[in-house]
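Design job #97: recover the sequence.
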């Protein structure tokens, strides 16, 4: 019987205009306007720090030094992420902060923690119970430098204990989301940039991922970045590769080789009996799928536009060597439905044999 192969590819180009004054985005209310989504602070004009100030309501419940540390950590995490993913334009983004003792109008970025003034009230119009929102108020296209603010809703302002900022990871998540917008990222499912982030926080969904940029998917696909993907063995993993059903607790991980574009690496299965390693051999690149309406790290200044950069995934075909030495054909999907997904290619008329899937790493 001959093998059957099927790949559905969809490429959708995304376009957008430069961020206008007054463009807003909100963490979790899905009111983010993609046309407003380019990065606010770039190095092209020579600046190296963002001047930041905080306006804090006395009932917000978190000391100002702690809030400053959280804001600083959010920018630092994005900076680290860009470099871990080897983003070729990482040096264009300014992520270093200089905190002012108070807001006096000279700041580049103002954070409101529970506080509300006329500027915030105007920005909130059209939003439905936002946990947070981000607004760019001015932008100098020649210098690649903007001015704007981030507003974080007061605790328990939507319903009883919602939002709950006393849980520090909730505030970590919402700040990472809003800083992502400042860096030119639109909404992206399966990451901290998900449009329904506030629902996840409200319903205690995916709580273990609140301090990570990626969970179900990768925001930036780095085909040459090595590393370890912790994941889950699928129903066919042990029967097809080991020759039996798993015994006791089972786990799986994929160790991706560094510096190679093909899906070269090792699939590791483990149960109560032992640990088993399977070589994943470089295969044939089939194609790339772009996700509709998702742009990441969009950059525009002084008539220059780089992008939009669309998030997407890649599909490869290759082989995997079983314990008894057989080479089976596999499909290797990177950043499609999951960060990594490996399946055996079935014979004609047989069901697809799923082996492994993993969420993101960072």
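Job complete. Output follows.
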């Amino acid at each position: 019987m001959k093998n059957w192969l099927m790949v559905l590819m969809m490429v959708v180009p995304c376009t957008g205009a430069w961020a206008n004054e007054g463009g807003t985005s909100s963490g979790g209310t899905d009111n983010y306007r993609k046309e407003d989504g380019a990065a606010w602070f770039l190095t092209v004009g020579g600046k190296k720090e963002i001047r930041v100030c905080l306006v804090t309501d006395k009932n917000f419940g978190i000391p100002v030094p702690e809030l400053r540390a959280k804001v600083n950590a959010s920018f630092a995490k994005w900076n680290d992420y860009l470099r871990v993913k080897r983003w070729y334009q990482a040096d264009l983004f300014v992520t270093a902060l200089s905190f002012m003792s108070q807001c006096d109008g000279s700041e580049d970025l103002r954070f409101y923690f529970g506080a509300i003034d006329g500027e915030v009230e105007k920005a909130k119009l059209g939003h439905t119970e936002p946990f947070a929102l981000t607004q760019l108020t001015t932008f100098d296209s020649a210098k690649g430098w903007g001015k704007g603010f981030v507003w974080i809703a007061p605790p328990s302002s939507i319903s009883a204990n919602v939002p709950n900022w006393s849980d520090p990871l909730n505030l970590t998540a919402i700040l990472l989301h809003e800083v992502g917008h400042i860096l030119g990222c639109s909404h992206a499912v399966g990451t901290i940039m998900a449009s329904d982030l506030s629902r996840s926080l409200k319903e205690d969904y995916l709580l273990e991922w609140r301090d990570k940029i990626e969970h179900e998917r990768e925001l930036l696909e780095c085909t040459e970045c090595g590393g370890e993907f912790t994941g889950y063995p699928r129903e066919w993993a042990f029967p097809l590769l080991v020759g039996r059903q798993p015994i006791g607790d089972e786990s799986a991980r994929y160790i991706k080789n560094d510096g190679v574009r093909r899906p070269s690496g090792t699939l590791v299965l483990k149960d109560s009996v032992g640990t088993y390693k399977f070589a994943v051999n470089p295969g044939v690149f089939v194609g790339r799928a772009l996700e509709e309406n998702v742009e990441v790290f969009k950059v525009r200044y002084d008539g220059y536009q780089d992008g939009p950069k669309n998030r997407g995934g890649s599909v490869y075909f290759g082989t995997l060597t079983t314990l008894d030495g057989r080479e089976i054909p596999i499909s290797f999907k990177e950043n499609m439905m999951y960060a990594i997904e490996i399946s055996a290619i079935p014979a004609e008329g047989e069901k697809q044999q799923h082996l492994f899937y993993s969420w993101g790493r960072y």
